[in-house]
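Repro:
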Amino acid sequence: MATDESPPPARDREAFRWQTFFERSSDPLFLLNRHCRLQYVNRAWEQLTGLLLPEVRGLRCRLEQPVGPHDSWQTILAHVLCPPVEARRGDLEICRRLFPEQRGAAPCWWQLTFFPLREAERLLGIVGRVQVLSQEAVAGGSALPEGLATLRARVAQRYRMDRLGSALPAMQRCAEQVRLASTLSCPVLLIGPPGSGKKSLARTIHHRSPRGETTLIALDCRRLPAFAVASILLDRQRMVNPGTIYLDDPGALPREVQAQLAERLLGADQLERTPASYMPRVLAGCSVDPSEQVRDGLLLDELLQRLAILRVDVPSLRARRDDLPRIIDRLLQRLNSEGGRSITRLSPDAWEIVLGYTWPGNLRELYSALQHARAHTRTDVIDALDLPYPIRQGVHLATVPSTKPPRALVLDAILEMVEKRLIQLVLQRTRGNRTKAAEMLSIWRPRLIRRIEALKLGDDQAVIEVDPESLEQD
């Protein structure tokens, strides 16, 4: 006896099984084809995002940098759900993406696991799983494994206070300011030219402080999206181990974020029941005078007051010329610790170039030059030709004298030439009529005649050839 319900074909039964698995899963799941287009999402994914499958089917996932709360949900999802290159090659990958504020919900971090589906060597598609991380999972966590703890201790040794030793008064003052900052928990503002080592000094302050076992997060306010910086700065009240935040150029932040940060820093000091450990310590670096940024409207004065409770002035490398031998020895030790060819010293010719160059990029440029020279030398000694060409050329141009003396400017000769040319133009305008020319110049006719004679303007020089059409124009 036949029934109305006949068994589905094998392919339909297989599709029914994986769709049933998707729907019964409590984890938000989605399916991408091999072209990274969204094909399927389960009910948990729809509940998480508030978007239904017909709305998102066919969406092509690709990285769009940067994305923010004002972007469309298509752009945000295309960025967040895009699998890494390793997953598209067939490897299982786990990554974290920041999902910006949407529909009044606070920004949050998604941990995505990508499972490639392969048949032989062919990629059929990618299954993705979404896990929304809490603030504690993102910023806190359990104790570090022994290997990572050892690595952190090794990194901390790189930022010892003895590396700041110097006979220069400016560096001695800077070292004392850093030593004082490492004993306090207040915000610190480091001011110095680009590449002078502000971030390195911030790490020294952090590792020498009571928070040295925690994490330092360095944020470039000029390059990172504003919403990402704001989420890290302002949504960290529930952090178990907040550590330290270093802000590079806080004047690049939007003014509303600056106002919120200033209010948060002020509130952390005023609330008696808010322990300092619940608020990350804020260190900031400025490459220009912050008071000029306040006058230009780039930096809020109230934020500057909160950040500059303790100020550290970082001198340029040009002002530390006597420290160059000690600085280069330390940088060479750092390069040698990375493996590869070990460099022992610089040749006398290389030292002549190093001492003669002005180093506008400061320590960052010096370290880059040593890296370049180490890669090009064939011995353990850096020679002059191993240094970058722009540095060698800069020293050469600064030392080669000019072949031509500067041309002197004589004011009387210039004025006489201008007067002569002006009289010629007026006389050609009046077709040689000196009476009309004197009227146009607002002088008496006898004076004009005396000036013509003094300037040796004969009849053949007083009037110059001009285009007749130009004489008819007013």
